[in-house]
Here is the input.
Amino acid sequence: MRYTEESMDALREVGDELADATVAELFERGEVGKFNNLMRHVSASGAPLPDGLPEVAREYLAVTSTPPDWVDWSLMEKARLFFIDNNVHISTALSFAAMPACYLVPHVAKLLTTTHSLKYPSKRMAETGQFTVYLMQPGAFEAGSRFIPAAQKVRLLHASIRHHLRRDDRWDVETLGVPICQEDMIGGQMFFSMLVLDSLHRLGIHMSAEGAEAYLYAWQVVGAMLGVDQSAVPRTLDEAREFLDLYMLRFMGPSEEGAQLTRQLIDLYEEVVPGTFFDPIVSSLIRYLVGDTGADWLDVPRTAWDTVVKAAPHLLGVLETIEDHSPLGAWALDRLGHLTTVLELSSLTRGRVMHYAIPEHLRKDYGVSGTVPSTRRWTPPPPVFG
Here is the structure.
């Protein structure tokens, strides 16, 4: 598919018809509180739905209870193995590249500061981390898994944000498009897939083409379950590059909200990292992964670690060589990556399960085992522009 300014503009006018209709009826009937209370007890796929659940919600959950019938499960297994093999690197890319990239899009940064508590930024990161971990578990789409209920709730969460912002006249639809529109949902999908792959490449991580393609595919499946229009979503790495380049060129730039969110992100991870000696590495990683221009727009401070971080690909290359040539080393590094991801997520969630509840209102204090065979080494598709 070819992407143009006109095709992207059309995507800005569209939300998610199914989820939007469900949320609108829940609010109209005053049943949001009941839904949230009852859904706190639904965390596993296939679990019986509680008595008293609003009928419109019951219908929505039935329709969205299974993955798309076109899913290629062999590709999904390759994606899971790719994640296991690279989980700590993927977590790094999500935290220090994908999230800051969201903040480089001013209207996305504005939406985030409008809808999230500025006093609890770890909630946003915890929800993202937990969602990704659920996705990459064995049997993520089978009975008893936590991923499908999480996806169902996140989709309604997005719809509720659209509902609030449009109902309360807190969003300039004519200028900014529908909040969390199709273009932005696909953009987010690209940040968490293509941009993560770019970041792994920049870090010097060894990836097969098959693994990279499978990882992109897994996020395509996620997008479908979150209401993304599959007729518009990139299907290949080349299409993903085209969409991501055009999306960023259309919107990226400096904003007060973007800088504020980035400062919160840096503070959050400096708090997670033990002691203070390594604190500057957080800013340096962001600057290295998003580039100097983007980092300057986000007011990421320069530190003495900026030069040190540039050596990361060499260090990681040594570790990757050990992993490629030693089954025991590969096992040890995979376990270390798993434990690092679990400990990071535990710090962000503070031991709690994130429930992705529908906000009943926007508070006034809110501002506006094994590895994928490495038969072909993956290199990023070239930039489409510039």
Observations:
- Residues 328-354, 363-375 have pLDDT under 50 and may be disordered.
- The radius of gyration is 20 Å.
- Residues 5-349 form one domain.
